[in-house]
Amino acid sequence: MCGIVGVVGRGEAAPLLLEGLRRLEYRGYDSAGIATLVNGHIERRRAEGKLVNLAAVLEREPLPGTTGIGHTRWATHGAPTERNAHPHATRRCAVVHNGIIENHAELRAELERAGVAFETETDTETFVRLLDANLAQGMEPRAAFAAALRRVHGAFALAAIFAGHPRTLLAARQGAPLAVGFGEGEMFVGSDALALAPLTRRIAYLEEGDWAEVGAEGAAFFDARGERVERPVVVTAVSGAAVGKGNYRHFMEKELHEHPAVLGDTLRQYLDPKTLEVRLPRLPFDPARVPRLTISACGSAFLAGLVGRYWIERLARLPVDADIASELRYRDPPLPEGGGAILVSQSGETADTLAALRLLREGGQRVLSVVNVPESSMARESDGCVLTVAGPEIGVASTKAFTAQLAVLACLAVGFGRARRELTTLDEGRLTQALLEVPGNAAAVLEQDAQIRELAAEVAKARDVLFLGRGSLYPIALEGALKLKEISYIHAEGYAAGEMKHGPIALIDESVPVVALCPTGPLFEKTMSNLQEAAARGGRILAFTDEDGAGPLSRFAERVTVLPKVGAFSTPILYAIPVQLLAYHVAVLKGTDVDQPRNLAKSVTVE
Ligand code: F6R
After folding, report:
1. Which of 300, 343, 377, 396 to mutate to test the pocket of ligand 1 (most atoms within 8 A of CB)?
2. CA separation for the pair 519, 213 (Å, rounded)
3. What CATH superfamily is the domain 448-607?
4. Which one of 37, 125, 317, 528 has the lowest number of neighbouring Cβ atoms within 10 Å?
5. Which tens digit of pLDDT belongs to each residue from 276-321?
């Protein structure tokens, strides 16, 4: 992952680079650095840790120069120290890099045999040394860069500047996104349009294998064979406005409170409140004919996909395979002729999901992606795209984007059910009505905030926590556990409630809280029985249910939080909110870095 940004500018580059990095910090925050050309020489400033540390270094030691590159790092090779921070530089060139150079070990060995000394443990430095060696032989930057590119394998994006060439920046894309921004007498590169939006809205995206020579007045694009190519300049819809926290302490808290609005905005796109019909955009496959669907994604997006599987199989009677993208891509699954696929991603840039997308397309599947970023690589590479309308999500832990994914998948499931004649118009109207009530119910769930905060005080004391749910709430139990691990660093597991007795029940004692997702409905009695089995062994049950479930659960649960009573169809969307809120409050109590938890990054663009 990592974020990269570059400027061939008119004024000082450093403030622009820093602002670009601020907008890219979601991609990694282990270290940051910038390099500029000062009187034709390369100079750099770097700092371990978050961008504020680099900003402080720049305060103390400003960096002049109008051409430069910047980087915010999510460490892959080499510890997150200042020494390993990008840009990596020699006297002749400086490079920022996002992704992994997979053949770095053999290149390093080859260069070391030739007498080249390395300063860092990073894979990036191999590219810098290759480039430097080419320059040392008298090659011009463009030829040196192209020759070095031919030697490296992997998935990455790169940007480089060169001593003595104050108006030249070279950039390449091979598996990781990169955009070139067109200004007035100044040009930019960045990992995404978000980084460039305050500088320019006119963007050209590099395609796979492309590289570009960027000068102050424009850019020349080349494909992997070095042939000159044209890449269209589009006006990005991404806003340059800074996203603020408002009156909230954290972005995550703000984003949690955006659930009702985001759900409303997303559902409004795909539901007609007057006719109570689902209105889907043109799909790349015919749901009435497709023999099977494959759903794939990573992390929370995968868990949304798992709920999607429950819905689509139940409502549309359409067989669905669901697999995490990093497994799917190496599993070599048999894919049916004429099959369809749904790929889910907030960022639309997740490397594993993007690779699964390509594999599925190569296997003849027609791919529909559910993404939050309209201009993302996944949106551009899919056969069709349905957008979540969640707006920018800054907190690393996904919240509103997750429920927006659920909302889209729910609409797809109903639409598929209608197309396959498994649902009548009446069924469609009933399900649509239930979805239209979700934003209001989400607001009611948020009113339980104070009670969930009290619950968090209990959970915060635990070393291990179990989350249990059945049916379409099983993936929500997984989501609760994932969120808690991710931001509070408490070990948590999600289980299908019925699976407890097959092993995990051995974990139960009075020190392990069991968070139970237990609304009344078809699976209520069964889930209750599983919870009683845990309570009988000293388990402390913290239950989420509705008013009808509160009485029976109160007989043995330590705490019962009452949520609005809704039909089984919309419970996964609503029950996701309290488990995310719970994780948030636990993290606040534990004093962790809620928006930027350790070791993580928002967009995972490495395998
Ligand atoms: C969890 C979380 C991650 C992401 C995952 C996929 O809170 O945010 O698990 O869901 O990295 O990211 P996207 O949706 O951008 O593909």
Report:
1. 300
2. 58
3. Glucose-6-phosphate isomerase like protein; domain 1 (3.40.50.10490)
4. 317
5. 999 999 999 999 999 999 999 999 999 999 999 999 999 999 999 9
